[in-house]
Every structure is written in C-alpha cells, then in structure tokens.
Amino acid sequence: MSNAALDCEPLLVFDTTVLHHFALADRLDVLADLIVGRRAATTAVVLDELRTSARREPALTAALKLAWIDVIALDTITEIRCFSDWVRRIGADRRDVGEASVFAAAEIHGGTAVTDDRIATKVGRAYGLEVHGTIWLLADRCRSGRLTEVNAGAIIDALRETQHRLPCTGAEFPSYARKAGLLQIGRPPYIPGPTRPPTIHQV
Length: 203
Hints:
The chain has 203 residues and is α/β, with parallel strands linked by helices. It has helices at residues 3-7, 16-24, 28-34, 44-53, 77-90, 94-108, 118-126, 134-144, 149-160, 173-179; strands at 11-14, 39-43, 69-72, 112-114, 131-132. Helix 5 crosses helix 6. The two termini are 17 Å apart. The model is unreliable at 1-7 and 187-203 (pLDDT under 50).
C-alpha cells in the first residue's frame, strides 16, 4: 500500500480488538458497511496478533483476508520511530504492541485510530491523536440515517456475546450515545482528556 494512497483519503486504522470481535461475531460484513466512504487499514502487527489467536479461534481467519482493508507495514524509518514512541507511551506488553502500531499508523498517515481499549484510548487522546471505537462507528451511521438505533443495539449485543467489553448494552445504546453527544447532528462528540502536547513526528 502506497503512502500517497493513504494520504489522499479519510483513513480509519483498526486495532486487533475490533477486528477480533467482529470476526468472532461473524459481523465483518457489517463492519465493512459501517465504514463505507472511508478507507480502512490495519497494521502488519495486528494481523500477526490475529494470526496467532486464530490457532485457538479459527473464526479469526476471516479477518486475515479482507479485501476492503489495507495493511500498513510500518517499515520506513519515520514509521518505525513513531511506532517506538507509541510502544513507550502505551506499554510493551504483547497486547499493547498492536495498539501502538495502530496509533503510529494513524499519526503518520493522518488517520483515526479505532480501538475499544479504554486505557489505550486515553493515552492516544492525551497525545492529540483522534481515537474512537465501535460505539462511535455505530452512532455515526445512525446519525447519517444509514443504520437504525435498534439495529445498532443488535450489533452491540452480538459483539458482547463474544465477551467484547463495550461501554453499553444494545438497549442502553441510544441513551449512552446521546449522553456522549454522539447522536446529535452538527455537534461534535464530547471527548474528555488532557490538552494536546507537542507533536513529536510531523510528516
């Protein structure tokens, strides 16, 4: 995948957790519908994590061959340095490395990181990165009229059946999303967190 292609369109970079649970719930086709009109990507690190987990959970193999998601290798000097910075910020545990790679890819290519890990989300936003999760994706489609709140709730419940830790149930989704400002047209969602520190890498 060329950097030029990444830089010319809105980009969503998905972490392991999101792809993992959509695959287990057999809802990868739904995820593809949720991002229509945007470019989707993940990283080689994330695919390695999914490949390892697929030995125990064969359903995850579906997430390894998605035609609609590009793979960012993070193999340039700038990308490697940025990846190293995010590993230091988030942590060096095995499950943190995938998120660090996603955050590096999103920073370098001007994209939005998509993760449902609350701790990683707080760290990313503290450093000025745009980070959102599954609830944000669902609310965005509800706001545009492409998805009903009832259907969004059904997706949430299907994901929660795979032990995905989401902040609300399907029934709670409308009130949760409204409280967060995610369903109000013309109003940006409230994103708590520290102010943005200086950006380390400018590309």
